[in-house]
Amino acid sequence: MSTEHDIRPFRIDIPQAQIDDLHARLANILWPDEIPGAGWDRGASISYMRDLAEFWRCEYDWRAVEARLNRLPQFVIDIDGQQVHFLHIRSPEPDAMPLVLSHGWPGSFVEFLDVIGPLSDPRAHGGDPADAFHLVIPSLPGFAFSAAGPKVGDGSTERFAPVVAKLMARLGYDRYGAQGGDAGFFVSTELGRIAADRVVGIHVNGPITLPSWDDGDADAQVREPEYSPEDRAKLDKLTGSQSYTRYGYAMVQAGRPQTLAIGMHDSPAGLLSWIVDIFQRWTNPSLELPDAAVDRDALLTNVSLYWFTRTFVSSIRLYGEGDSWGTALQSSGVPTAAAVFPGDNSIRVIAEQQHNIVRWTEYDRGGHFAAMEAPDLLIDDMRAFFRALRRLIR
Description:
- The protein is built from 17 helices and 9 strands.
- The protein is α/β, with parallel strands linked by helices.
- The longest helix has 15 residues, at 268-282.
- Residues 215-223 have low confidence and may be disordered.
């Protein structure tokens, strides 16, 4: 009889009928006229999206991607009554360090495909075998092949972290590192708070640093003299009059998720445009087109997962069901490293108030989706940080 601790192998097998339905819908998109001269300033470029949708329909090969994904060791386990999907890549190096990688939104476990080999088997990728990791890469609850929690509040990153902690314990990892960006940033840092005796170090990319409004004075932190002119410019992006153009999507997802999801679950063109617009805004700002920053097939694989698994609405629950945004977060005390990439709006003085920041590195290429945009830089930064902490798991 199955118990909640049973770990079961998993293979992706999307029915052909779903693929055929996707292609049929993409062939019958009702495209709007493009606003003259708008480009990307008013949202997704219509001409770009028409081309990308046609590529998705005619050239993108889901079955080839599915076969590649199925070559990775995938599993599911029931935790607290819900299915959790994850990759578990054991390193060939016996002294490898366990590391859990948590993805963000609008991402998925496929964010990490380009870092799996170098991190788990550095010897085979020109690296030092002493830097090897055993990797656990979960699909967070409500994403891809992981079930969403049944109650309001279960869609928050605060609820995700205990699920990840239980997964690591079930796999037999008593001491491990954590890494993540975007939603994965909140999951990884919350892991440090709830499992400080187990998490030896936390590595984050693009740390989300929001001033706290808990004291009722929204200007209190802005007036602090520690803020540099660069910090103040970042704060203005977060709270200024133009913030809605950058973060409006988050407000809609937090406040009207079901209304938005009706369109996203019915129209692959709507889903594609919504997610690709996010990628265009958050990838390397020096690159105009999202597939100049992220491989086109990788971008479409990520969108395809949302479409085939029907998880858009469950994935965006984290925007309206959590308490991390704008809350004064208590530091876990766990050593934390931050890798900051172009376009990240990370403010170091806020990060240092909320986390035990021991390493802060800023890069001149890459972007918010670091594992997809600059995997080499992210890998090197993670290796350098965790190198000094490996002795703690011996």
